[in-house]
Every structure is written in C-alpha cells, then in structure tokens.
Amino acid sequence: MRIQENAQYSYPVLREWPEDYKVGALSFDCDAEVDETDILFRCTTDIAQPEVKHLVHTGDFRFGVNLECQDTFLSTTIEIGDGITTFSFPKADLSGKVEVRGLIYATRNIENFSSEDFHEDYNKALFRIKKGEIVGFSGLKSFILPRPRISAEHLFQLVRATDPDFDPKSFKVSLAEDRKIQILAGTILHDHIEKNRGDGLGRLLNNSSVFSLALLDVLNMISGNEGAAEYGAKAWYATLEHTLETLGYDLKDDSLNSLEATQRVLQHPYLEISEHRKGVYA
After folding, report:
1. How is domain 26-145 classified at the CATH fold level?
2. Where in the chain are all domains bearing CATH 2.60.40.10?
3. What ranges make up the beta strands (E) of 121-247?
4. Beta strand 75-79 with 61-69: parallel, antiparallel or unpaired?
5. pLDDT tens, residue by residue, 230-278
C-alpha cells in the first residue's frame, strides 16, 4: 500500500507530527530480528489523540502494520493493538528490502467525526469517514533482511517443453519469468531430471550436468550493465546478484568470469560427485 506522506486529504489525518491536529500524534516504531526459522517483528505504538484512540478501542478504527517485501512480492496488512505487539513470518517469506508502516483505517462509515484537537483550519467541522479510508499513518520503516544463498533448485524452475519439434534430449533457458529462471527440457531429459531429484547422487548429477550449464549460460547472457538494465527488476536477478556478492563477484561487471562464478555458486558440483562416489564405494 503506497501512501504519499505529503498528500492532501479531505479530512484530518493523524501523523507522527502535529499537522491536521493541533496536539496529538501517532508514534510507531518497529524492529526485526532473524532467528533460525523466522523473522520476528516487534512494534511499539502510541496513539496520543483521544478521539482516534477511543475509536480504535471500540473497533470503529483499526490499527495495522502494512508490510511490503520487494524480493518476494509479499504485501499484507497485519492488525495490531496500541502498545507493544509482536508477529513473525517464516524466513522464506521475506528477504532483501522490507518496508513497514503503521496505519489507522476505518472499519465502517463514521458520521460526524470531530475533535477539539483539529487544526484551526478545520474550524470544528464534522467529517464523514468512509469504511477503509486511512485516518492515520506513520513514517516508513525499512529493513534489509538477509537474502538466502541459492541452490539450483531455488533458482531454476524445470518445465517440460510442449513443442513437438523440441529435441527430447536437450534443454534451453528462458529468462522471461519473474520468480525463477525456467529450464525448458525435452520430454526424455525432463523425465530423467525429475527422477534424479529423488536421491543424493541424482541431485548431484543434475547440478553437474544440467544446472551448471544453465547457470553458465545465464551468467553469460546477463552479466554487465546491460543485463542489469534488462533483468534487474526480476526477483531471481536480486537473489543471484546477492549470492555472487557474498562470493566476491559483481553481476554488473562486464568482465565477470562466468565459468569460475558458476563453479563456486554451485559449490564445485563435479567434486561433490567424486566425493559422493568415494563415500559409496569406500
């Protein structure tokens, strides 16, 4: 929910500073803490305006936290109370930049809303507040949460090619989707990849023989400023960019060593196969 903080409303709005009200303000603060499985938010709220606070307590107004995550496209509003409230999300739901804002909104139509604390410009006017209208909001709080290191399974989406002319033993990469990079696989290859996902050695074979070639192809296509301009808004680009940064690479670098970066991102898949065989046949 995008709010223009300097927008003009046809009725008084409670903010973090006195403006439409001579006295009284909305105080909102929020912290985020990451543990092994969840992201815990702790929000502290103080509605220092009697009429608004009363209507929140009666349920005619409601206080909520609007939360938006650019990486995962999660956008939601969580109802909270006045004072201290905690809520959490699984780590998989949020990563990268997360923005939160406190909101007060009407749960029903309110007739003849008034307050002695209105700014003099309103001259003790009476207002009709419609259900769903914002009657108070805080400033925006931003967090940068850790982005997960990718695995091939998280970065790529395997799709069976439906074109009858597509080579059944081959694959190609598609960058058209927002969430994941698609691997379009012919019917025979698709079935082998799916079967190999069921055991440890099979997953290593997929990494070494399919996902590594796909990632190398992707890096060759998107590295540099032109790739950032074309694909930078996609969720998979942000995840891949962060993973490369943790390894000391810059995806916007036109001279990125794609072959070396691929091996390190996928943690040297050939050596993993070799070590797995040692364990099996030792």
Report:
1. Immunoglobulin-like (2.60.40)
2. 26-145
3. 127-129, 134-137, 141-145, 156-160, 171-174, 181-185
4. antiparallel
5. 999 998 998 899 889 878 899 999 999 999 999 988 888 888 888 877 6
